[in-house]
């Protein structure tokens, strides 16, 4: 069926799934043709034989666009999903309309990666945060949630050794981008977000008030407002 609505694709974060976007999708579906997918190994998507990496997830987005017959799409990426969106904008700009990221960590080195990896021990999660372990088990139905956690830790460790996007990469992204972060995000720093914002040729910066890192902490109507404003304004 033909639609005049703008296509927008939601990309979830590490340990996340497309199901987390339900409230936002409902808030935007009147104005957008909303698309969502689970990266391999997440939600109901089985692990890929190609691996578990930003590059693999980006290839899955390109495959999704081809299967859906989408020549281009706006992208909203939360956390790791935002990093995938930026990677796509850098290497496949012809496919990407505008990019909105929320709570995306851009500064990856051995120190920052090591800090995150320490929190990604499935045994510790199960013992210390059983409610979160239960949530992950319910969210990742295609495979063992512990494997998702372990492979995510490995992915982050690899990013710490070799970041895929460096300052000169952001300087070459021609896609209009809006970087969003919460003022109470304890994982993403203002400094790293502002550095990428300044490096991007066409960028806007939005700080959400009283907002921590988890997607569920974001004010959905406010988020929907900024997404709609950015994707429809003249730049």
TrEMBL record:
The keyword rRNA-binding does not apply. It comes from the Bacteria. Residues 7-110 form the AB hydrolase-1 domain. GO terms for cellular component: membrane. The keyword Hydrolase applies. InterPro entries: AB_hydrolase_1, AB_hydrolase_fold, AB_hydrolase_sf. GO terms for molecular function: hydrolase activity. Coiled coil: none annotated. SUPFAM superfamilies: alpha/beta-Hydrolases. Keywords: Hydrolase. This is Alpha/beta hydrolase. It comes from Chitinophaga eiseniae.
């Amino acid at each position: 069926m033909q639609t005049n609505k703008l296509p927008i694709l939601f990309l979830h974060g590490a340990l996340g799934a497309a199901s987390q976007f339900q409230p936002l999708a409902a808030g935007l579906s009147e104005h957008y043709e909303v698309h969502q997918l689970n990266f391999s190994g997440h939600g109901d998507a089985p692990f890929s034989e190609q691996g578990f990496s930003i590059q693999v997830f980006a290839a899955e987005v390109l495959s999704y666009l081809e299967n859906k017959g989408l020549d281009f799409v706006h992208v909203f990426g939360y956390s790791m999903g935002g990093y995938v969106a930026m990677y796509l904008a850098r290497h496949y700009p012809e496919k990407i309309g505008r990019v909105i990221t929320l709570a995306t960590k851009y500064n990856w080195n051995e120190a920052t990666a090591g800090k995150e990896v320490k929190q990604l021990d499935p045994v510790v999660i199960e013992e210390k945060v059983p409610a979160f372990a239960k949530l992950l088990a319910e969210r990742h139905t295609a495979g063992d949630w512990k494997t998702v956690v372990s492979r995510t830790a490995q992915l982050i460790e690899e990013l710490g050794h070799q970041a895929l996007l460096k300052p000169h990469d952001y300087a070459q992204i021609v896609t209009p981008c809006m970087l969003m972060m919460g003022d109470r995000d304890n994982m993403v720093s203002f400094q790293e977000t502002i550095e990428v914002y300044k490096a991007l040729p066409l960028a806007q910066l939005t700080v959400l008030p009283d907002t921590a890192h988890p997607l569920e902490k974001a004010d959905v109507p406010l988020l929907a407002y900024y997404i709609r404003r950015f994707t429809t304004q003249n730049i």
